[in-house]
Amino acid sequence: MTPGVLARRVASNAMRLLPVTAYARVIRSEPIGLCYHVVSDRPVPHVSRLYPFKTVAQFRADLLWLKAHFRFVSCAELMEARDAGRPLGPNRVFLSFDDGYAECFSVVRPMLLELGIPCTFFLTTDVIGNGQALAFNQVALCVEAMRTMDGGRVRAILQEMGAAAGRPLADAEAVSAWIRPALRNPDSPAYATLARLVELAGVDVEAFLGTQPYLTAEQVKEMAREGFAFGGHSRLHWHLGSIDGAGRVEHEIVESCRVAAELSGASRVPFAFPYDGFGLDRGLLADVLRRHPFIGPVFGTGGVAREADVLHRMIVDHPPRRPGVPSTLPGVFRDAYLSEALRRLGGARAEPPG
Ligand SMILES: [Zn+2]
Question: What sign for the dihedral angle of Cα 74, 75, 80, 86?
């Protein structure tokens, strides 16, 4: 065991003895940001192959645990406090959902209304209304389709995708793991490969869109009337740090926020980076925010890390590994604070992918 691993283990065990609010006070992140994508009791084939997510009961357990230990802060409260240069106070939590899946309306919204919990939804605005599908959702559907395909057809797909990748790809998951990072860049030749993959896998994107997998404009408006906040999350979930050209980056931010503001009726809306903020020039970001004062604050996915102009959030979709564990959040919070404490001690970089 290296000294680093040993130190981490000792610190982790020590932190386990503390109540969650104690270490929230030690490393202050105001507020603590949480980011979910989807909650469902039913299979969500366009997401299940990308990452696991919580059931309704597991999400409820998270909310009840949060209610017992923290105070939820709404987007408006957060903006007000920042404008006034006033701290929010300890133990505040900011709840958010990214990407704009239909379950935000059908599953998440009723529970939040029942429990009186504020939430901000970051929209990938070009898919509102189900006119087109996000690239990674199409990949997930292809992986799903390949599960039930005969061996010969799967081998043919793997061969063609392997030729495009320039290396052998052993199975559908390997195709997904190769193509998804490439699709973060809108200019990538992987987009042509994705179109071919969809064709080979026999995925009917139109039929998929017919199931209304994303929020509609009407649903967004209804939720806004109910008090929920909305923000921009780019138009089609491209990685801002991978887009060539400052003007195009600006367009992704401004256009998605413009649509979120228009649909929700808000005069100011926040923005959340698709994936993460790595590689995005912070000078460019500051310039965009200065010229478009209706945008802000900006959110990242760096856990409890602190950055001057970006509020970070922890991604908390992952369900409990063991049955009977009511909420994953106590463990997630402890690990995030531990990582941040060690990062500060060791000077490492923050921000995992999101
Ligand atoms: Zn996202």
Answer: positive
